[in-house]
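Re: [ENG-882] Designed sequences occasionally contain unexpected residues at chain ends

Forwarding the minimal case from QA. Structure tokens:
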């Protein structure tokens, strides 16, 4: 039966190619939309789980916002006096608080890192963001000549990195978070301040105040039972010229927006799936009409109705499976380009697009193709199995 289905598919090349094209395009759009939306959802989940801070506090006069600071790796040279952290620490509901100092590598030949990359100085005495990773690797704190790089920064040759003229040992790479941390370099806060102060390219930033008295952000972990949104409002009410934002509120808002986009895209894809079903039902119904005499001959020589039913289904699955495989491969190859474009243009958090993700999406695409082939062929297959052999031979044509 498989051989007969294969021969019938090969014999009608034009019709087979058209059927595979309809299935392939349907599966291509499914794999692209499913993979991109799934990766975006995964990025939001990673960000929510691994950011570590419930609240982020930034200078409210800076051009950067909390979204840019958390979800993109764009260098942001924003500063406020370090005394702000002490005053924020008086607010009720704060369990842990740590300060960070932002600077950047330069797009200069002296640096081993291509382009301008965010460099974050962390405070080992109060840090709780890197602490889980350091504990897992049996490190108490980074030495002054060590750095930790984000999960998306490629490994350095010889485990050494040149940053703003200084040579550092790469202690390790962080786990992916789906946030700007993935493309950030972490270093001791005092070392970061010294590098920034000594860099001739950043001197314009220190005209008003020296970097040793400045911080860029305060990250806060709230106590159990306290609402981060309320604690952030309490901080904003201090009139310290800062802006406190609850990260959960930001992630929740993004998740709501993404859910609306997902529903819209899913609705459009279901409409495309419905149109493809109608088109393929028409294709297989026409195929059955053209092969009435052939089916009548099969029935006349003793082929059972169930075998005829299976034959039409097998032909549909062969064509749908081939089209689905081609659509899945094309979709999987195109996902990374779309994710890169979305990340660079919108700065959205992204999950990891790995080989296992690609394999899962590809297999799901083939399953969708086989399901589409089944729906489109089940009625024509049932109708062909009900044909009377004598009538089919008398009124049909053999192709």
């Amino acid at each position: 039966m498989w051989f007969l289905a294969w021969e019938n598919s090969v014999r009608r090349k034009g019709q087979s190619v058209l059927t595979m094209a309809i299935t392939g395009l349907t599966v291509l759009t499914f794999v692209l939309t499913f993979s991109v939306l799934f990766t975006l959802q995964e990025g939001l989940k990673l960000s929510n789980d691994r950011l570590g801070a419930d609240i982020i506090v930034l200078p409210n006069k800076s051009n950067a916002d909390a979204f840019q600071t958390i979800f993109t790796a764009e260098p942001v040279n924003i500063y406020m006096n370090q005394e702000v952290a002490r005053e924020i620490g008086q607010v009720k509901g704060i369990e842990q608080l740590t300060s960070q100092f932002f600077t950047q590598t330069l797009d200069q030949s002296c640096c081993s890192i291509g382009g301008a990359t965010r460099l974050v100085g962390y405070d080992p005495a109060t840090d709780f963001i890197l602490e889980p990773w350091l504990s897992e690797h049996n490190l108490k704190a980074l030495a002054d000549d060590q750095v930790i790089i984000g999960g998306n920064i490629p490994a350095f040759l010889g485990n050494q990195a040149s940053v703003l003229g200084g040579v550092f040992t790469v202690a390790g790479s962080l786990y992916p978070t789906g946030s700007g941390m993935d493309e950030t370099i972490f270093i001791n806060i005092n070392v970061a301040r010294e590098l920034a102060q000594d860099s001739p390219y950043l001197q314009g930033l220190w005209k008003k105040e020296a970097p040793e008295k400045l911080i860029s952000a305060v990250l806060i972990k709230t106590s159990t039972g306290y609402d981060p949104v309320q604690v952030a409002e309490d901080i904003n009410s201090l009139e310290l010229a800062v802006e406190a934002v609850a990260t959960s509120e930001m992630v929740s808002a993004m998740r709501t927006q993404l859910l609306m986009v997902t529903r819209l895209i899913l609705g459009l894809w279901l409409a495309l799936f419905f149109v493809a079903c109608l088109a393929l039902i028409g294709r297989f119904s026409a195929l059955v009409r053209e092969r009435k005499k052939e089916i009548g001959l099969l029935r006349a020589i003793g082929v059972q109705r169930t075998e005829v039913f299976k034959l039409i289904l097998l032909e549909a699955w062969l064509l749908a499976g081939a089209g689905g495989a081609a659509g899945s491969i094309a979709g999987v190859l195109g996902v990374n380009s779309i994710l890169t474009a979305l990340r660079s243009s919108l700065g959205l958090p992204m999950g990891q697009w790995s080989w296992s993700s690609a394999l899962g999406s590809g297999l799901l695409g083939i399953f969708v193709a086989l399901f589409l082939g089944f729906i489109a062929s089940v009625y024509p297959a049932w109708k062909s199995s009900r044909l009377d052999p004598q009538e089919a031979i008398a009124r049909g044509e053999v192709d």
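QA comment: On inspection the terminal residues look reasonable. The first strand starts at residue 55 and ends at 59. Proposing we downgrade this to a documentation issue.
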